[in-house]
């Protein structure tokens, strides 16, 4: 087990490109495997979750290779096998702890002409899978789960899957994506209705590959339909932006450190992901966006954050899914804000890599944070004087990284046990954090 020690700091300064987007990298690997021709994925994420996805598609007959010299950025090339060209894996597909890989592959494999088993780490085996297996069965998929959990045994589809119209009970991009990917192998359209907008990377990438994706008119924007492809999927040629959810740790670190100034570059700014910016602005944070552009159908730009005083806010409704992965770090921001911060409609936090309501709240309290979990979120009263302590990452990358940022504002030093879990999405996190701490300037 790795223990990382983080000291209180007075200044943060610098420029950083956070690692590339996990959601986009996993989706690109999956779609590229069945495209026609060679896909080029520049700057893909290199992390445990990305490795899991790439190993799974290699086992299905579509290995990734380095882009090769002569290219101006690091990357991968994946020779697509066509929609019907993948082969049966010789062993269970091991998704490690990547829920995105497992849930998206469940949909993607449901209509293939071969059997496959999806399995994962103990942590992933504890996460709920019925949310994808139930609607996939309604499309005609033959899937067995173990009491609603992995391993998932997916039987060869003897016929095309059926189209589906599905009112999603929870706002989940993984469920939506699993169904839209299953739709590549259906004999009719797949329509999902989301209770609130969730990340739309799958829809954007399907469109880039030439699949017809329609979104409901105003007032019905949560209705998304994909149509069975009429032609082979176009290979992808894209640059993966920095992951907003990884950059978010530094956005909050800067926002809560008086005098800090950080610039996060080439960050994915898809509006379905940037709820944290709205919440921080409502708290009074100073944020400047620049260099706004599109890369491979995704909005990208630079985010500059200046430290200052924050005030408590309320977060709930449609904002919650737009910052679903940012609640651990948002809670840290709330500990430094004046007044009360309330988070609602966030029950989903109980079924992430850890229970991010009970477990995470407990670790933050060890640092002296006045935070209480509620039935569907948490309440924090700030500003709190945090004190260094020994805390546990709970095997959850975002918990470990959020605790490290809290430690920057805690008197003395904090030890984070089990810090190796950051490798899921951000292997160099502690190195990058150290590079931005500017105690000489303090
Ligand atoms: C993800 C969707 C979200 C998010 C997860 C990644 C994705 O999960 O929390 O980290 O890539 O689609 P849910 O679909 O369970 O909300």
TrEMBL record:
Specify the species: Candidatus Thermofonsia Clade 3 bacterium
- Enzyme Commission no: 2.5.1.19
Q: Name one GO cellular component term.
A: cytoplasm
Q: Which InterPro entries match?
A: Enolpyruvate_Tfrase_dom, Enolpyruvate_Tfrase_sf, EPSP_synthase, EPSP_synthase_CS, RNA3'P_cycl/enolpyr_Trfase_a/b
Q: Which domain of life is it from?
A: Bacteria
Q: Can you name this protein?
A: 3-phosphoshikimate 1-carboxyvinyltransferase
- Gene Ontology annotations of biological process type: amino acid biosynthetic process; aromatic amino acid family biosynthetic process; chorismate biosynthetic process
Q: What class of enzyme is it?
A: transferase
Record has Transmembrane as a keyword:
no
Q: How does it assemble?
A: Monomer.
Tell me where in this chain the Enolpyruvate transferase domain is found: 6-433
Q: Name one Pfam family in it.
A: EPSP_synthase
Q: Give the metabolic or biological pathway.
A: Metabolic intermediate biosynthesis; chorismate biosynthesis; chorismate from D-erythrose 4-phosphate and phosphoenolpyruvate: step 6/7
Catalysed reactions, as listed in the record: 3-phosphoshikimate + phosphoenolpyruvate = 5-O-(1-carboxyvinyl)-3-phosphoshikimate + phosphate
Catalytic site residues? 325 (proton acceptor)
Positions of 3-phosphoshikimate binding = 23, 27, 172, 174, 325, 352
Q: Is Transferase one of the keywords?
A: yes
User: What are the TM regions of this chain, as residue ranges?
Assistant: none
